[in-house]
């Protein structure tokens, strides 16, 4: 299979290396110092699931790659629209653009730009980041990737993607029956974990130790689940309880990518996370005061770092 990894950072770089190790043709699309390092030194993955190093073609121009079977879109949510405008050279008649991003709106934004027929939903459960240019560090999480056609159909291309990802060492691959439900399921956790670690500037262990903060974390999860159901998303009844149990067992020093971006003065995904909860709550009877509070606390930082 021929893959383009659009955004070869913590998630995309990890997937690209694993796919290459499994024998697939992989092209990396990146920028800046990371791109320079990929071109000169290759891609190194330092992972709790096993290290690897690969030399792959890397560019900042999709026209250098041409049409592929799959585009794995792994840019930050606030870059989705810009990335979508650059996808045309990568698209063949049946190319699937798989969004492995945070949030529940990326697939709609992509569909508006390139047509829904090209879009596949995806969810990534992995703690990984660019440790230094050319080096991706995977520190934890199950490296679990969930994906599916937006209408739930088991098409030839989604079965082929499933086979490709299942062939990768260090990847837990899951073909979903209802990808919309899976997107919102992760959304409930990421809004709480990202929002609270960023708002407090502290890891989850400190949040758990503070009664009021831990209650707020739980309420964020519950609010997102309520908004999902109000928008006709079929979330399992125990979704909130499962995430709270999961968060109780996280390493005490666990942060989030949102916290990382905030503390490194990078654009943050606030509008794709807690602020999006408030948007999706509009027109429903669900109140989301905890998500609104996180949005209010982080808004000045989002505005300050919006231009990178």
TrEMBL record:
InterPro entries: 6-PGluconate_DH-like_C_sf, 6PGD_dom2, ApbA, KPA_reductase, KPR-Related, KPR_N, NAD(P)-bd_dom_sf. Its EC number is 1.1.1.169. The keyword NADP applies. Keywords: Coenzyme A biosynthesis, NADP, Oxidoreductase. It comes from the Archaea. Pfam families: ApbA, ApbA_C. Residues 4-151 form the Ketopantoate reductase N-terminal domain. It is an enzyme of class 1 (oxidoreductase). Catalyzes the NADPH-dependent reduction of ketopantoate into pantoic acid. PANTHER family: 2-DEHYDROPANTOATE 2-REDUCTASE (PTHR21708:SF26), PROBABLE 2-DEHYDROPANTOATE 2-REDUCTASE (PTHR21708). Belongs to the ketopantoate reductase family. This is 2-dehydropantoate 2-reductase. It comes from Haloarcula limicola.
